[in-house]
């Protein structure tokens, strides 16, 4: 079932990644059906587990009744006389034994889940760690070389024993320090793969790849963080105002940022959704330029900008004072960049077809590239125009509205009581008929159980006084009838609950998918994908497992307390009067705990979303993070989110223990009062039958101390 859940979440992630394309082509409904089919398969396995849990609930709820029937029935049939001390002492012991026995199936479920999770995590942890195959060793003595590749063959495969398909084949390349290298070639010729092999993202199976100095990387598809403009450019580095503003100017970003409400503190949406393609490329380039590395690997950074902006970036950033002494290796089709390169590398089918200066490049390689000598570069006057006159604001962006400043909306967290509409909606998802069946069967089930206890108390009372008018077989027959009724009603309640929970799980998921598919594009701009995935993973798990389990316990405790009140009212109204102070204390504790636990639960859900968002974001930009050697920064960032979530979870546990301790104290005091009343009432004005104190004590002990 975990594999199916992973598959569903993976498909949901694909849907979120490509939602705009799906909406454009009208494929969103087809993808929704695709997800629902995956969910249906998952629910099939979930149903098996739920119905097994229903059997566990059945045995858990009927065990006390069955134990009392079998034990006391055999005891009476063997000729022994039932007395209050024997009966209710046994019932107290039964309750002590039954609780751990009935918890055993859920313990087994937890152990199975833990075993599966441990095995999956262990399998992941035992995978090969990512490591760069290149290094600077004693053989790399030339201080004039930035890159030295000797007969290198690389593959994307990480399996050592696999018959790998070579992407880079027998490449030899030497790049001098401070040179500007243009890597050219047809689409699919291996340009991007060459950069990835230099980064160490590909596995070098033959030869060697040696780099001299630190690396900055700009991928072909820019990776943008969900955060402020400044955070995207600094990328964990200290703020240097001089270099920062020089970088913005060189990358033609100063005008764009000045138009944003909030300037460089304006928030960028998930994956840069509120930026144009050219802006994303320039932000990624600015991050690399600001980093101040020894070597820059640039993958077609000029393709997303127009010719004038590209010319500005080429002259001010790539060839300007910030990078002119750095080694720059750029995959490109830009004629201006090729004509300015110190060295040209022509790739063809994963091999270096030719390398050298632009003036030495033979015309036989590519007629297009041989036209570089005929290209008329922009005049110096044009290049030195003020940036305000450049078409920096491509794509017709004249201004950024004030709403764009808050492009990523903070996750809303409800306050106060849970609205009744929430409970009503869950009942609608489960089905009103099933809801009514569950409630009625739960009440009747508790009534049959209380009837069983009252009849047992009546039996003990009559036999203790020696005035019984019925035979032992009659008492046993009535006890057996109560037991059978209890069994039937418990079975109906358990399986109705399982069926209703499954029905609600299916309807909630379908409603989520429907809302997601029909949401406007603006919703995906303002909502990080990690927050949405949180709804389809952790929150949906709550609907599938946690909520039905908690509601089952809530219903059992509610009808149990209702049954106790009825029993106390029947046997002695005085008990209720004495319990009023305890009820007042309990209500105060309950109000305080509910308000606290409710907010903690909401904080738990809200604090989980940044974990998903951070993990997804880091996974998408793993190549860039490794290239910049920023692993520690992002690990620390993730740990911050995880620590906040753990604080919330820890607070929930502490609050639960706080309430449990006080309820146990209240339960002990109730037992004490029952015992005192039994002693005082035996010779006072309020005579109490033999079975009543034991019955009341058993109810109090089970419901307050046992829970």
TrEMBL record:
Residue stretches making up the ABC transporter domain: 147-374
Similarity comment text for this entry: Belongs to the ABC transporter superfamily. ABCC family. Conjugate transporter (TC 3.A.1.208) subfamily.
One Pfam family named in its UniProt record: ABC_tran
Main location: membrane
Keywords: ATP-binding, Membrane, Nucleotide-binding, Repeat, Transmembrane, Transmembrane helix, Transport
One GO CC term, this protein: membrane
Gene Ontology MF: a single term: ATP hydrolysis activity
Lineage: Eukaryota, Viridiplantae, Streptophyta, Embryophyta, Tracheophyta
Protein location: Membrane
InterPro entries: AAA+_ATPase, ABC1_TM_dom, ABC1_TM_sf, ABC_transporter-like_ATP-bd, ABC_transporter-like_CS, ABC_transporter_C-like, P-loop_NTPase
Domain ABC transmembrane type-1 as annotated: residue spans: 1-113, 436-692
Organism: Arabidopsis thaliana (Mouse-ear cress)
Protein name: ABC-type xenobiotic transporter
Catalytic activity: ATP + H2O + xenobioticSide 1 = ADP + phosphate + xenobioticSide 2
UniProt topology in membrane: Multi-pass membrane protein
Transmembrane feature ranges: 55-78, 84-112, 426-447, 467-489, 549-568, 574-593, 665-688
Coiled coil segments of this chain: none
EC number of this enzyme: 7.6.2.2
Top class in the EC scheme: translocase
